[in-house]
Amino acid sequence: MKDVYILGIESSCDETSCSIVKNGVEEMYTVISTQIDIHKEFGGVVPEIASRQHVKNITMVIEETLNMAKMTMAEIDAIAVVNGPGLIGSLLVGVEAAKTLSFIYNKPLVPVHHIGGHIYANNLVKRLTFPLLALVVSGGHTELVFMDKDNSYKVIGSTLDDAVGECYDKVARIVNVPYPGGPTIDKMAYLGKHSYKLPMPLNDNSYNFSFSGLKSAVINLVHNEKQKGNDIIIEDLATSFQETVVEIITKKTKRAIEDYKVKNFIMAGGVAANRGLRESLEKLCIEENISCSFPEMKYCTDNAAMVASLGYYNFIEGRISDLSLNSKSSIELS
Ligand code: KG4
Ligand code: ZN
């Protein structure tokens, strides 16, 4: 069979990225232009600034990807692009760029779901095997997803309020750790001890999560200690917070693995870079005697390699769009 090359584009939040992937599994080249330093001074992503930066970057990012992969548009079979969920102004930039390329070079246009993309970051490490359970943990999502074949998603649990990455970033902000605080809190968690008592959030028999109560508990704890004139030991707070998060996520994941009798477990999204979660879930998979895989560290956060990977399966299944394709800030995965 002829090789299929997909050019993927991602611009749903604060990364402008382009990638070319062969047959859904082999990365030719990926460029990621991140805006983290620009948004850092505001303590979070400013949507208007993000979309303007995407406009500035997108052409260069696509050109550089083709140049570095030593390929031309003539060799590309289809253009895949994330059209949601995400920041609407940011998504529009990628979608318009993809539509323009599709029109000029007469290539099929393939819409890709951002969270589906995160799941397929694992396909670049090891071909997905089914049935599988995916834990999606990012700045905007916390979901347990059951899959029995490519491109078939059953969301069996999700957060009722804050996403876990959002909770990490807010806890970081309370203790003056700069955005995005998740990676720093993760590092600090290995330097302290679990000395602060925090509530185990939504410790029930569902597959759902809740993180806003845990966030409020951290805010209250910091305020109370300040009022008493006590210094907060940030490393201890990071350890206490991370161990609580890891424990509840591991507990719910274990139940889902057993109830759905999956043979494979994968993790996806920015928080999949978290060392505590990786260690705990890897141990769980050994105990459950199932295989597990995590995305490469650089492909935990937003990137277009994952988009081009899922784009391949969408393309061969005929899930293509015409030029009326629009961006949507929220789209169901299932
Ligand atoms: O997937 P992503 O790039 O963006 C969304 O689609 O949301 O995830 C970004 C999130 C941020 O909240 C960031 O703090 C978090 O992932 N994150 C981490 C770690 N690395 C990134 N959270 C905890 N531990 C980490 N090591
Ligand atoms: Zn993402």
Protein architecture, described:
With about 325 residues, this protein is of the alpha/beta class. It has two domains: about 5-120 and about 300-315, Nucleotidyltransferase, domain 5, CATH 3.30.420.40; about 130-295, Nucleotidyltransferase, domain 5, CATH 3.30.420.40. The protein is about 40% helix and about 20% strand. 5'-O-[(R)-(carboxyoxy)(hydroxy)phosphoryl]adenosine binds near residues 138, 169 and 270. 5'-O-[(R)-(carboxyoxy)(hydroxy)phosphoryl]adenosine binds near residues 140, 180, 182 and 273.
Task: Please supply descriptive tags for the structure shown above.
334 residues, alpha/beta, binds zinc ion, globular, five-stranded mixed sheet, binds 5'-O-[(R)-(carboxyoxy)(hydroxy)phosphoryl]adenosine, 2 domains, Nucleotidyltransferase, domain 5, 10 helices, single chain, 10 strands
State the CATH architecture of the largest domain.
2-Layer Sandwich
**What is the CA-atom radius of gyration, in angstroms?**
20 Å
Tally of strands: 10
Which superfamily, in CATH terms, is the homologous superfamily of the largest domain?
Answer: ATPase, nucleotide binding domain
What proportion strand? 15-25%
Q: Helices and strands, in N-to-C order? A: EEEHHEHEHEEEHHHHEHEH
Q: How is the biggest beta sheet arranged?
A: 5 strands, mixed
Assign a percent range to the helix content. 40-55%
CATH topology of the largest domain: Nucleotidyltransferase, domain 5
CATH C-level class of the largest domain is Alpha Beta
Count the DSSP helices. 10
Overall tally of structural domains: 2
Strand order of the largest sheet: 3-2-1-4-5
Distance between the termini: 30 Å
Which residues form runs of ≥5 with pLDDT under 50? none
Morphology? globular
Bound small molecules, by name, code or SMILES, are:
5'-O-[(R)-(carboxyoxy)(hydroxy)phosphoryl]adenosine, zinc ion
Query: What is the overall pLDDT average?
Result: 96
